[in-house]
Amino acid sequence: MTGGAGYIGSHTVRALLKRGYDVQVVDDLSRGYRHNVDPSRLHVMNLADTEGLTRLLASRPCEAVIHFAAYIAVGESMRVPEVYFANNVGGSVSLLTAMQRCGIARLVFSSTAAVYGIPESSPIPEDSPYAPVSPYGESKVMVEKILGWFDRIHRLRSVSLRYFNASGADPEGGIGEEHDPETHLIPLVFRAIRTGNPLTVFGGDYPTPDGTCIRDYIHVNDLAEAHVLALEWLLSGGGSDRFNVGTGSGHSVREVIAAAEEVTGRKVPHVVGPRREGDPPALVADSSRLRRKLNWRPRLSDLREIVRTAWQFEQTRAR
């Protein structure tokens, strides 16, 4: 697995180990954390090191790769697109080259709803056109297209999981969101509670019931489960495919704030600022394809359960 020391990757490692899989993690720790991974499973390496990846893959039996490693901050990608294309696209090509050399022909790819950009309708089905509005989203589109060519030419089977707003933390504790800088709403809500510095709500005049953006929040453990099912789909002979991973229901920024106040018993200081460029009013997944083909069901993605598990992790960090 690449990027297994990061937020979603570390939760997926835990899910795979519970299923009895042997997991090895490649991570350069530039955005992940050493404490998220058993040291015996961690290989500190950058994906640009094609020769190192080839040696590692050739050194032990490997049936498939789950590829998380990527830079994910949309705003940052607008400032330094060259960094995002070099890391997200170049790193993926390096990995695929090493896999091809070693005869490994199955890959689960961490994609994103950002490939859709600002959709014309919601919920969003997988056959919606590519329309990214950031270099981050474009980098994921490019890798999806590269995977299509690798399937056609090299018979490398892949599943691209396009996920929506990953959130929450494993109820068993120990791992959770630790992005630096943090851009995700729920940790920023907790930061406002902890520091008293108001959270900025970007836009209060959207065409939504309360004027704030609506997003599809999916618990990270439910997202990890989708990766396990995608892996098992490929291992059982399934072909290449693309799936949305979301609950199919959305919650507004104000609803998230209200849930946080209910769970924590504290008020969330916040102010309403201007809209951010490129923020669609609503992003909600049509995940019926994933439910039908891989028999996936979200189990922890009730909004208050998401917030409760995230708050539990936040409190352990503050100790």
Describe this structure in words.
With 319 residues, this protein is an alpha/beta fold. The protein has a domain at 7-167 and 218-246: NAD(P)-binding Rossmann-like Domain (Rossmann fold). Helix content is 41%, strand content 15%. The chain is built from 10 helices and 13 strands. It has helices at 7-18, 50-58, 74-79, 81-102, 135-154, 185-195, 220-235, 253-264, 288-294, 303-317; strands at residues 25-27, 42-44, 65-67, 106-112, 157-163, 165-167, 199-202, 214-215, 217-219, 241-245, 251-252, 270-273, 282-283. A 4-stranded parallel sheet has the order 3-4-5-10, with helices on both faces. The chain has a 3-stranded mixed sheet with strand order 11-8-13. Helix 5 links the parallel strand 4 and strand 5 (157-163). Helix 4 (81-102) runs parallel beside helix 5 (135-154). The longest helix is centred in the N-terminal third of the chain and has 22 residues, at 81-102. The radius of gyration is 19 Å and the shape is globular.
Topology at a glance:
Elements: H1 7-18, E1 25-27, E2 42-44, H2 50-58, E3 65-67, H3 74-79, H4 81-102, E4 106-112, H5 135-154, E5 157-163, E6 165-167, H6 185-195, E7 199-202, E8 214-215, E9 217-219, H7 220-235, E10 241-245, E11 251-252, H8 253-264, E12 270-273, E13 282-283, H9 288-294, H10 303-317
Parallel strand pairs: 1-2, 3-4, 4-5, 5-10, 6-9, 7-12, 8-13
Antiparallel strand pairs: 8-11
